Amino acid sequence: MAAAAYNMRHWMNKNALSSFVSWLKALVGRLENVIFENVNQYARHNSNLAIAAK
Questions:
Q1: Does residue 8 belong to any structural domain of this protein?
Q2: Nearest by Cα to 40 from 50, 25, 32
């Protein structure tokens, strides 16, 4: 039982890290989309930023 628990803990730690990294990449990608959407929306209202948004 102790060996099974040891192996299970290491398996969970390995998979938890890869799951966390995948989740973090998805979160960063979504935040980038939100930021660029807001910049583009603001640029439509301010002609000086229209060039910068492209």
A1: no
A2: 50
What's the rounded Cα separation, in Å, for the pair 15 and 22? 11
Based on the structure, what is the number of domains in the chain? 1
- 4 within some domain: no
Predicted confidence (pLDDT) per residue in 12-35, tens digit: 888 888 888 899 999 999 999 888
User: Region 27-49: what's the mean pLDDT?
Assistant: 78
Structure tokens at 49: 């930023």
Tokens at 33, concatenated: 């989309």
For residue 34, the enclosing domain spans 14-53
Determine the 3-state secondary structure of 20 from DSSP: helix
Q: How far is CA 47 from the centre of its chain?
A: 31
